[in-house]
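Slide 14.
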Amino acid sequence: MRVVRTVAELRDALAAATEVGLVPTMGAFHAGHLALFRAAREENDTVVASLFVNPAQFDAAEDLAAYPRDEAGDLAVAEDESVDLVFAPPVEELYPPGYQTWVEVEELSRGLEGAARPGHFRAVATVCCKLFNLVRPRRAYFGQKDAQQVAVVRRMARDLNLDVEIRILPTVRDADGLAVSSRNSRLSPAERERALALPRALATRDPERARELLDGVAVDYVEVADLEPRVLAGAIRVGSTRLIDNVVLEGETR
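Slide 15: predicted structure.
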């Protein structure tokens, strides 16, 4: 496995690559990332993972500072999963001095996470657009847990005529039902037990019933979102940790 940190190194490493699969990540790899790596490995000749904690996606400096980082551990995992190339640039490589160009998917970035985290999806769309332009993947892999992000990236690629297939994999859950997330490591055992209210509530596929089951929990939202596919999405806060999740409403009319 090769690790590169500059755009020049990345382009040189991929000069002769064909049928590239890209897994964009912010590190802190967990079972969800492994599922993406494995799907990319099955479907492509070359697998590239990006490892970049995108500062523009965070609306608070303390949240950015608290984001879990373990580059050495992540690189070991990526190598074990037969990733061919990891692009791990410093911030200034993607946002050099004077940077001022952003990609914004207007309608899909509103509401839900967009309302709770202003500017978040502008940052997601921008960094994904940059990665697609740099890596030129045939396919890019994302998890269904971040349903609104998936919708934003898919629309961005479609509207900008980017020649990339957006592949979405089902949400990976731990045995207790909690969707895997790098943020789960910040939960104490008692907080994790309280967090399980979210997947249990969403499993009803009924927004009113879900809200009832979340009574007593700090809820940001529980809403049906008309994305592709339609989902019942929710976000809660447990202690200092904010968690999101969703279930697909295939064929539901609610």
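Speaker note: The chain has eleven helices and nine strands.
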